Structure formats: structure tokens, C-alpha cells
Amino acid sequence: MKIRGLLFIIMTISLITIGLVIIGVLFDKEEIEKQQGLTSYYDVATNGTIGYVYYVDGKPGIYLTDQVSYPKEPIVQLPVEKEITDISFSPNGKRLAYITNDKNQQESLKSEVYVIDLDTKNEHAHFVSDMLITEIEYDPKNPDTMYYLQAGTFENYSPIASARPHDYDVFGYQFSSQETKRYTNIKGYQISSLNVSSKDNSVYVQMMDDEGTETAEEYFSTHQRIFKIPLDQPNERYAVTNKDKQEDIYDFTLTSNEQTFIFSSVSNPEEGGTFEYELFSYDREKGEKKQLTALEEYTGNPVLGPNGDTIYFMVNKQFAQATADYHLYQMNLDGSNVREVTTVME
């Protein structure tokens, strides 16, 4: 009797466990199928066409504002298990590259980079990484070269923190030779906002100015700044924004002469409550900062327009809430004439 009772208990526990696993899988699937709407991932081509990532019933797709060639139809649409985490137009605007990953990155840490020919609509998978590629950017000087940010791990850095990508570095890919190259060995806690120079062989990124810190006190006094990394001498990287300013810089873009940076930063650090993120400009030569927006929202992801006199950016109108609500905006370079951009899905 005791053996039969023990077997019954084991079978009961096993059935309950299997049932909970099935319920969890179904719940996760239902949740990812609820993803809907515009994301923060977009790019602007040299002809003014805007490409953006939009979810429909959990399926990520890439849409273009070119309604003549692509009237409300996605040029790419993936299954609900996948996500698109960045896109980049080639210098002539005729190709579009994008990154795809599994949504559950703790189970599958792998990224694939695809390129679509927008004239022929042919698509080609160019390379796969068993790490997490977070951003891609064509070299504006050489369409045969793409640079990307790659994270080496996806883990919890503390018991109370959620798993996130870490150990970032800058890599490159050459289309003609299909070769990848590692340029840095920073293994940064977080690196983002990759911008490729149009003037020399270098890139700009946003990261912590924590080099040389040894204690927790020193680390907590560091800030997120914009760095320039000469790719021929990557160890000679340096901060291009003011080291004396006690502010964190987030997403950014730069003007064609690389003299002015447009970046997102907190506009109300002393007020308490929910932070408001606005766009600012910083003139490297004059050392002057100017606030460009006053939307009292979460404003970021700036992209320079094709003529160099317009800034596109995203506004999350549900920042610090369970779900995001992104809207695409544009304005003049001096912050005037702020207006919302209507996408083909609206």
C-alpha cells in the first residue's frame, strides 16, 4: 500500500507539473501575441523614406512610408516567436538590413542579420551570431561595410535585476568577403546608440565613463556619455561630451559635420517623481547645450533627416507603464516646428 500510495503521489505531482508547464507556455504565447503597434526601431533613408518596425498580433513586421511601392504591406513579417531589434538603410537607400532574434533570449541567444533589396524585394541572410547583436549601422562612406554592437552575455547582474545583455563590443562585417571583425575589447556593461562617422574611420557610441574605476563609490559617480572610437586605434577612445556635466546621455545622433550632437537626457532630475526625457543639442566647439523639446514625455531615438536640417525621434506616451505607446515625430534642427509623423499603419 505504501508503495502504491507513493507512486500515486509522484504521478499526481508529475501531472500537476506538466499541467503548469503547459499553462505557462500557453500564457506566454498569448502574451506575445498581444504585442501590437509601433516600436522604437526605425530608420530614415537618403530619399526620405522611413522604415519602421510594427507589431500586428504579436508578429513583427517592417513597413515603409513609401506607399506607392508598399501600400500598407510589410516588406518583412516574422512569426510571433521572433523579434526585430534594429534596422538600417544602406547609404543609397536601396537596401535595408535588419536584426532578428528569438523573443526568449534566455533560451536562445542568437541573432541573424538579413538584407532586403528594395527594388527586387529579394532577401538574403548575411550572417548569424551565437551572441546577441543589438544594433547595426551601414558605413556611410562604404556600402560594403556594416558595423554592429554585440553583447556577449544575457544574464542577471544582481538577484533583484532582470536578465539583460551585457559585455558589449563593436564589430564590423564586410559584405563582399563575408568576414566579421572585432574592433574593441571593452566588454562594456552597456553600449548603445551606434553612429558611424561620415568623415573618418571611427564610430560614436553611448556608454559609461567608468574606465579606471575600482570601487563601488567610484562607479556610482560615473555617467553615460558619448564616446568616439577610432577603429584603427580603438583603445584611444575618448568622451566627446563634457566630462564636468553631471548628467546621463542616452540615445543620440550627430550632424553631418559631426560638430553637434542631438541626444536624450532627463530634463527634471531635481523634481522627483517620474523622470521626463527631452531632446537636447550639444555644440562641441562652443561647449553649449540647448533643450530642443518640451513634450514632458519619454523622448528619444533621434535620427538625422536626409537633408541634415530635420530630426526624427520617438515619443513613448506610456513611459514607466506596463506597455509602451510609441509615436514618431519630427522637428527642425533648432527644435522648431515639432509635429507628429503619420505612418501607413495609422
Keyphrases for this structure?
346 residues, mainly beta, Neuraminidase, four-stranded antiparallel β-sheet, 2 helices, globular
Gist?
Helix content is 11%, strand content 45%.
Structural class: mainly beta
* Low-confidence regions: none
CATH architecture of the largest domain: 6 Propeller
The proportion of residues forming helix, as a percent range, comes to 10-25%
Order of helices and strands: HEEEEEEEEEEEEEEHEEEEEEEEEE
**What is the rounded Rg?**
22 Å
How many distinct helices? Answer: 2
Q: Give the CA-CA distance, first to last residue.
A: 67 Å
Task: Give average pLDDT, whole number.
Answer: 86
Can you tell me the number of structural domains? 2
The CATH topology label of the largest domain is Neuraminidase
- The top-level CATH class of the largest domain is Mainly Beta
The number of strands is 24
Quaternary structure type: single chain
Beta-strand percent range: over 45%
Strand order of the largest sheet: 1-2-3-4
CATH homology group of the largest domain: TolB, C-terminal domain
Biggest pleated-sheet summary? 4 strands, antiparallel
The geometry reads as globular
